[in-house]
Amino acid sequence: MDKSWMHSDRRSKAYEFGVEAFLNFAVENLLTTTHIRCPCVKCVNLKLFGVGIIRDHVYFNGIDQSYKNWTFHGEPWEATTNASRNVEEDDGHSRYSFVSEEIDMDDNDFGDFGSDPYEFANVIGDGDQPVYPGCRKYTKLLALVKLYNLKAKHGMSDVCFTELLILQGDLLPEGNTIPTSMYEAKKTLCALGLSYEKMHACPNDCILYRKEYEDSTNCPTCGISRWKEGKDSILKEGVPAKVVWYFPPIPRFKRMFQSHETAKSLTWHAARKSIDGQMSHPADSPSWKLLDDKWPEFGNEPRNLGLALSSDGFNPHSSLSSRYSCWPVILVTYNLPPWLCMKRKFMMLTLLISGPKQPGNDIDVYLEPFIDDLKSLWVGIRGVYDAHNGEYFTLRAALMWTINDFPAYENFFGCVVKGYKACPICGDDTPSHRLKNSHKICYIGHRKWLPINHPYRRQRAAFNGKPEYGIPPEPLTGEEVLQMVENGDRVCCKKKSIFLDLEYWKCDFFTFTFINIL
């Protein structure tokens, strides 16, 4: 294919025809119009976009002229000698397990290069190559990982990191393999990364520009433009008004099972035995047991994952006067032992919702791609390799809990958390009382959950001047909550939670989840 247009003027017809030919070539080979690597000089094939966004980037930023072999867009790879190398393991442990220990940064700074065997083979070669001739302590890959950790830890800019690499190369003996720029360092490390999706969103939290809205330029709900408005009130085409980063969990689960030790730890909950009958792990909870009993085909496979979701807003800026609210969504895997499941390396960032305002009850819009992946995980992901048992299996997973404070609980589930009927369990029968002097509402029915013979039930002066003989109400099931919302009851529930789209959240399992969240 003629690639001379890459060096032509971007205003010329040759460049215009070349861009269209390139996009047609990519679509024909990749069979998609929404997840294609952008070859512009800023993205350098590290980010995935739709055809329309890529066309804008290539015109505005120019195409990377060093990208001569279009391997990421369907052109055959020119195999090298490194491509035939195999990844060896000793005693089930990868020879390059130091990578998972040393990388304390986000894998998601890089694209989905891990699926390319040739490029990953080159990284294996970097793991054997000393950082300079005669060095036994550091390899090229280990040195780059440690240097990039410093960049992430101390917030170095790309320019600063490039200058540091140049200085490091000058300090080391001749023949050293330290790259001379941030771009070269990323190309070396990118094969270790996992994919992420940068999605455009409506500033009013109406939609994500995905699926049928992929090429839309205005929100179909509120009509506001997709693009950011500059100070001169002129729209900056190609610059989104709001961005959401989505980090798909399925490739990460596959990567976890490719580690011998991690794959073994993911079945720890099934191998252990509860001696005293007490709940010492989430696997002992009623929710876990109910899921295993109701769907025995899920519970009989110990490698199936039980997940929890956590989210809250925070201000990423140092200025406390700023009201900017950014919402990360974290995924926790409870198959792991208690001393591992809350470690930083096993807590997965799945969504990063940018500000400046919090999504509120519209957070369901941003959870849509995650719910789609949860539906796929419930059906099953075939061909997942278990390094511990040395076999392929079908991986399934279920979201069992969410971890959040009470205000965020309203955003996730639509339950009323303030006013006279703020108790999600009691609902219309919430025992509330408005204080005359402070004009605040207090809730005085909490003694119902005490044992029937508890002395606090008979005390009067310490509480509301009355004894308590009531019994706690039965929580609503998922089907009852769904029916109540669909019938238009907005007294206790403001919306239908997107979690009710999951099959297992509509049954009695929701009852236990509902209680455990509180």
TrEMBL record:
InterPro entries: Transpos_assoc (IPR029480), Transposase_21 (IPR004242). Transmembrane segments: none annotated. It comes from the Eukaryota. Residues 3-75 form the Transposase-associated domain. It holds the Pfam family Transpos_assoc. This is Transposase-associated domain-containing protein. It comes from Prunus dulcis (Almond). The lineage of its organism: Eukaryota, Viridiplantae, Streptophyta, Embryophyta, Tracheophyta.
